[in-house]
Amino acid sequence: MGQDGALKTHDMVQETENEKMGMDGCGRLRSFDLNQEPECDRDTFIEENGGSIGGYEDEEADELVGAIGVDDVMKLTFDTEEEAGKFYNLYAKLSGFGIRKSNAKQDAYGISRFRKWVCCCEGYRNEKWFNYEDRKREAKPITRTGCGACFRVKYDIESVKYVVTRFIMEHNHPLASEASVQHIRSHRKVSDAEYVQAKSLKLVGAKICQIMKHFVIKAGGYSNVGFCIKDLYNRMDEERIKDIFNGDAEGALGFLAAKKDADDMFFYKYHVDNKGRLARLFLVDSKSCADFSVFGDVLVFDTTYKTNKYRKPLVVLAGVNNHLNSTVFGCALLSDERIETYEWLLSTFVEAMKGRKPVAVMTDGDSAMQEP
């Protein structure tokens, strides 16, 4: 099959001039326009899928939540903290509210001794935001009502399990409906299967907004997708960062080490943050060192801000030779533009140049650059 007619994705999506042909969730071939807002009816979708939402029949979900009491929950045990969190999150979704993590404690070995989850409406908004004088935008709606619903587990050393020590069911606010509960933050999630499908569509040139519309059409409406477009953006960016950490950073350091073996005057230095991620990288080759020894009286210090695919500042240290042509003395890839970052860069540059410093340094008006 030729390239123009190739099957591009897992869902057999084929582009035409004005529309795309795709397989829907039932395996039927149909066309859809990516630029047209999908029309769907949530009641029709629920009826076609057996009247279920999130894998539970509506009546079964109500019976399940209604049958759970405080005494029943207090008898539960969990092997891990994650299992306890998943249980409470599922209970919250069936009940119609969201959750978030509260206080916790870990021992010296990193084992959680206890963990508490609270309702997303727990607490109150800070008073300073009510009296904010220089307000340029309208204040966001108040969502914190001081709700006392919570779920707390503690690690039991004898049974080597997490036991429930506190469970409060009562809320002081209305609960969300079945159609809107999945849009609460704790229930929005892009699954691994959905991410793999989105990645395959991204590789063939589809935009995130088009990928999101593809999921909407397959699910039968925005209310049935289970996440919003911002969640899809965040998941794609999160996986991109993981790919960079697992592949590009180690590959770059390996390449620079090979260059160092082939060129004795080649210099590079890097710095990792407290999470083990590559935060700063500086490199200078032998030609740059030789040029700086002759034309290094004036140093031009500038940053091209987030123009690369890693969205990190690229600093180019340059100058002018005797022919009035630009010459590069070194370059660095940084994670931020703080004062301590620029101090590290300049000290590393002086180290690479065997202690020689430029007579004058030209920078832009950035205060962090002027500080060192």
UniProtKB/TrEMBL annotation:
Gene Ontology molecular function: zinc ion binding
Domain MULE transposase: 298-371
InterPro entries assigned to the protein according to its UniProt record, in alphabetical order: FAR1_DNA_bnd_dom, MULE_transposase_dom
Residue ranges annotated for the FAR1 domain, each copy included: 86-176
Highest taxon above the source species: Eukaryota
A Pfam family assignment: FAR1
Stored PANTHER family: OS01G0519700 PROTEIN, PROTEIN FAR1-RELATED SEQUENCE 5-LIKE
Name of the protein in question: Protein FAR1-RELATED SEQUENCE 5-like
Species assigned in the record: Coffea arabica (Arabian coffee)
Protein's gene: LOC113720258
